[in-house]
Write a structure and sequence with these properties.
The chain has one domain: Double-stranded beta-helix (4-Layer Sandwich). The chain has 5 helices and 17 strands. Strands 9, 11, 12, 14, 15, 16 and 17 form a 7-stranded antiparallel sheet that branches. It has a 6-stranded antiparallel sheet with strand order 5-6-3-10-13-8. The termini are far apart. It has 264 residues and is of the alpha+beta class. The longest helix has 13 residues. It is globular, with a radius of gyration of 21 Å.
Length: 264
């Protein structure tokens, strides 16, 4: 199925929104809960499946939904269709601070692999499937688990990444990255996991126990602020169960608690 040809614009800097322009009859498919606003004349419907195969039967939709459930994603996707006679707009945003990356799948050999939390929305006709990693170690220690999402088609897809986004073009080189910093990569990239140096480096280097190794020919999308890193820093500085802060600057924090009469 040929993808719908949607237009779009990215709004904002660090808390970005993608506003998709739909001609009459055009549809964009999105993760449940990603929509920010939509204009009058846009109809939306929650369905099982991405609608890329018009002849897909009920059992096929159930199987596709089951795979998404296995990946920890919602088993339903929301279809937004312009049912008016003029152009209409619908907007989507990521769940945490970051940037939205538009990817024309026709320019990356029609296939893109991404973290299961990275996909935001895509033009109708894009096949949104689950890709199991080939190696047990990659799945176990790769940060994304055993499963990645596979986007296939010839239209526009949009992914969300935390912090700054960097694109690397590989021409046979090898790139090693923190597993959480990997957002997506194209089909010509081989993805595996390797130990982060010596045992001393693994346990005391602060870079994690394993690194993602990417090599081959294609494009890699990286993020500077994985959500797991952001959440860890927030939790580390959140008040403890007793109401006291466990933040950085422990000497000043302890002095503040003493002046407040919290130290007993």
């Amino acid at each position: 199925m040929k993808c719908h040809e949607v237009d779009y614009k990215i709004i904002g800097n660090d808390l970005q929104v993608v506003e998709v322009e739909l001609d009459p009859g055009e549809t964009v498919v999105a993760e449940a809960g990603a929509m920010n606003w939509m204009e009058d004349g846009i109809s939306f419907e929650t369905r099982m499946g991405d609608g890329s195969e018009a002849a897909e039967g009920f059992l096929g939709k159930v199987f596709s939904a089951a795979k998404r459930g296995l990946a920890g994603e919602s088993i339903f996707m929301t279809h937004f269709t312009n049912v008016s006679k003029g152009k209409r707009h619908v907007a989507f945003a990521g769940p945490y601070p970051g940037h939205i990356v538009p990817v024309d799948l026709s320019t990356v050999d029609n296939v893109l692999f991404c973290q299961k939390d990275a996909f935001l929305c895509a033009a109708l006709g894009t096949r949104i499937d689950i890709a199991f990693t080939k190696r047990f170690g990659t799945g176990l220690f790769g940060g994304e688990g055993f499963i990645l999402e596979r986007l296939e088609g010839d239209g526009m897809a949009f992914i969300h990444a935390g912090g700054a986004v960097v694109q690397k073009e590989l021409s046979g080189e090898t790139l090693r990255v923190d597993t959480g910093c990997l957002v997506a990569f194209t089909g010509g990239i081989d993805y595996s996991i390797e130990r982060a140096g010596s045992l001393k480096s693994m346990f005391f280097g602060g870079e994690g126990l394993f690194l993602a190794t990417l090599k081959g020919y294609g494009r890699v999308f990286l993020q500077s602020l994985p959500f797991s890193r952001l959440a860890d820093r927030i939790l580390r500085n959140a008040p403890s169960a007793g109401g006291k802060s466990t933040g950085e600057g422990s000497v000043l924090g302890a002095l503040g608690n003493l002046l407040d009469g919290d130290n007993r």
